[in-house]
Amino acid sequence: MKDKGWFNIVFMFICTAFFTGILSGAYVFTRPQIQANARLNEIRAQLNALQIELPAGMSSIALEAFYDQNIKEVKKDDVTLFQYETEEGAVQNLLIFEGAALWGDIVGVIALDEDFKTVIGMDIIKQNETPGLGGRIAEDWFKEQFRGIKLYEDGEPLRYASPGKEGQLDAVTGATATSNALLSVINESIKELRAKTGGGN
């Protein structure tokens, strides 16, 4: 009986090691593709925030080439921005924001004009909020609210409207925690940008 007990322990150990090795190998094998898909997702989010329309069926290679040719990473007063110059010569800024929400980190991008006073657009790169509730921050109706918004110069740059309270945006109904967390992350990123660059004044 003792020998059988040891056999079971050794057998379980070998099985665990075997399947762990398979999973580790699969991760190593698929990691480059996962990273490539994540980069494409971020590129699409940045271009959407800038309201740049891309040809239907554009290949991933062409998408990356377009991005690399038109979007430049710059350091401005210790802040990392991505910049795009329009055909009219206007400079538009992309600011990546990241912070905690209800069920994990939210990563997104907000596009601002040259003076950091007007929002061109906003998109979500990554979020783990509840589908149908907090996850609705990634829906078009919510994101499209940000286009053309004038930021407040005093206090919080972006605010939700509510009875008796002025604001530019509507929160997601039934997802107050996620809505507030998202806006807090964006506002902190904008305020930090303004503080370091003197923009928005």
Strand order of the largest sheet: 1-2-3-4-5
Largest sheet: 5 strands, antiparallel
Q: Per the principal axes of the C-alpha atoms, what is the gross shape?
A: globular
The end-to-end distance, rounded to whole angstroms, is 80 Å
Order of helices and strands: HHEEEEEHH
Question: What is shown here, in short?
Answer:
The protein is of the alpha+beta class and 201 residues long. It contains 4 helices and 5 strands. It starts with a helix and ends with a helix.
Please give a structural write-up.
- With about 200 residues, this protein is an alpha+beta fold.
- It has a domain of about 130 residues.
- Helix content is about 40%, strand content about 20%.
- The protein contains 4 helices and 5 strands.
- A 5-stranded antiparallel beta sheet has the order 1-2-3-4-5, with helices on both faces.
- It is globular and about 75 Å long.
Helix and strand arrangement:
Blueprint: H1 2-49, H2 60-70, E1 71-76, E2 79-85, E3 91-100, E4 105-112, E5 119-126, H3 140-143, H4 176-197
Antiparallel strand pairs: 1-2, 2-3, 3-4, 4-5
Helix pairs in contact: 1-2
